[in-house]
Design a protein that fits this description.
alpha+beta, 28% strand, 18% helix, 2 helices, single chain, two-stranded antiparallel sheet, 116 residues
Length: 116
């Protein structure tokens, strides 16, 4: 379940997300930490994949998209599908706020070596 969270704390409202994932088989929550194999460099694996998306999304604006400066915090809200992990990245977390919130679908095939 993924909720859009709207924060209207001034002149410019900001959209973020709150996601909840649950493994029915084991009756446990799935978090960013449990989504990936222990000891893998999950952020280092995700950053170049998501950076390609952000570069395309930011194309035509001032220069290339900046790199991820928040580390794993960017990836905390996600949804798991049969084919992909969809990361919900709040407004201003990677790209400037003017770009709005981002939804980045990463094929599971690109993450097979690090997923649990």
């Amino acid at each position: 379940v993924v909720f859009d969270v709207y924060d209207d704390m001034g002149a410019h409202p900001v959209t973020g997300f709150k996601a909840f994932n649950y493994n029915l088989g084991t009756a446990t929550a799935i978090t960013f930490d449990t989504l990936f194999k222990r000891g893998t460099a999950s952020v280092a694996t995700l950053d170049p994949i998501v950076q390609r998306f952000m570069d395309k999304r930011w194309e035509g604006y001032e220069g290339p998209a900046r790199p991820n400066t928040l580390g794993a915090k960017v990836y905390q809200n996600f949804a798991i599908t049969d084919d992909a992990i969809i990361f919900y990245i709040g407004q201003g977390m990677w790209l400037p706020e003017v770009a709005g919130p981002q939804r980045v679908s990463v094929p599971r095939s690109e993450l097979v070596s690090v997923l649990t």
